[in-house]
Write a structure and sequence with these properties.
The structure is a single chain. By secondary structure, the protein is of the alpha+beta class. It is built from 10 helices and 9 strands. It is globular and about 55 Å long.
């Protein structure tokens, strides 16, 4: 393990020397816990910024898709509340347009729905409701199942499926059924301002014209109210270590079961190698 630690240290120290980022933390472990961790730099560029540690909160960006939305979908599929091969319109009747009746939940999870990768909702909409309406009505680029295009729009829709099926707002669902039971107390959307000192900033955002710290960096997630299936979660190295241990432990951590091992196997299996090496959400 000393070799692993030293290898990580060399990579991160070199990145700091090259000004690749102001700071970072890495954790390596097994299902039983962390074996080594290494932190470098500061949480922001100024010399007086504090160093990162395992309690530093980071905007985890697209990790939101797998930590939050995909885990929720695993639970709902396992409970037979969502059918992977059902049309998306069964759960989201507002998802309408040419060819969309053929788009399934599986298509969304494998990024093969035919939806485009992205659109600037934050420029095209004036509030969360109009932004969501734009997602529902965005035309398909290709027929479902023809190719893989990594799509934030599909992940936004899947977050809404979780809400419609469970009857709970996405952030409440995750807190009650995933992060809460796992003891991931620092993993959350829209962190309170009292946590600001622990949060690593992202950048100066030209659109919002301010230094972004403690609010989601992704502009579309911000326009959607800060809570979305594709982005918006903040987390820490300590919390993500617990999540990883649960996955490596077959869905269980500290006696708490989040999903069955068979469900993890199902969601992490490559679905169509002719299109991509993507699994379901993962």
């Amino acid at each position: 393990m000393r070799v692993v630690h030293d290898s990580i240290a060399r990579v991160l120290d070199r990145a700091i020397a090259d000004s690749a980022f102001p700071g970072a933390i890495s954790v390596v472990g097994t299902r039983d816990g962390a074996l080594t961790s290494y932190a470098v730099g500061r949480i922001d560029w100024p010399a007086n910024a504090p160093p990162p540690d395992e309690t530093t909160m980071w905007d985890i960006a697209s990790l939101t898709k797998v930590i939050g939305m995909t885990t929720a979908m695993m639970q709902l599929v396992e409970q037979d509340r969502v059918d992977l091969d059902a049309p998306v319109g069964r759960y989201l009747p507002d998802f309408v347009g040419e060819g969309k009746e053929r788009v399934t939940i599986r298509h969304l999870l494998t990024h093969s729905s035919g939806l485009p990768a992205w659109r600037p909702l934050y420029k095209d909409a004036s509030n969360a409701d109009t932004a969501l309406a734009l997602v529902f009505h965005t035309p398909l680029d290709t027929v479902p199942g023809a190719r893989m295009v990594y799509s934030d729009l599909g992940a936004i829709l899947l977050g809404k499926v979780v809400e419609r099926v469970s009857g709970e707002p996405l952030e409440l669902y995750l807190a009650r059924h995933i992060t809460g039971p796992l003891g991931m107390s620092s993993t959350q959307y829209r962190p309170d301002t009292s946590l600001r000192r622990r949060i690593a900033p992202t950048e100066f955002d030209p659109w919002r014209q301010r230094h972004i710290r403690g609010e989601v960096h992704d502009e579309n997630a911000y326009m959607l109210g800060g809570v979305s299936g594709h982005a918006g979660l903040f987390s820490t190295a300590a919390d993500l270590t617990r999540f990883a241990r649960m996955m490596l432990g077959g869905g269980t951590l500290d006696g708490v079961r989040i999903v069955r091992a068979s469900t993890i196997a199902q969601f992490t299996a490559v679905q169509d190698p002719t299109l991509s090496h993507r699994a379901l959400g993962w």
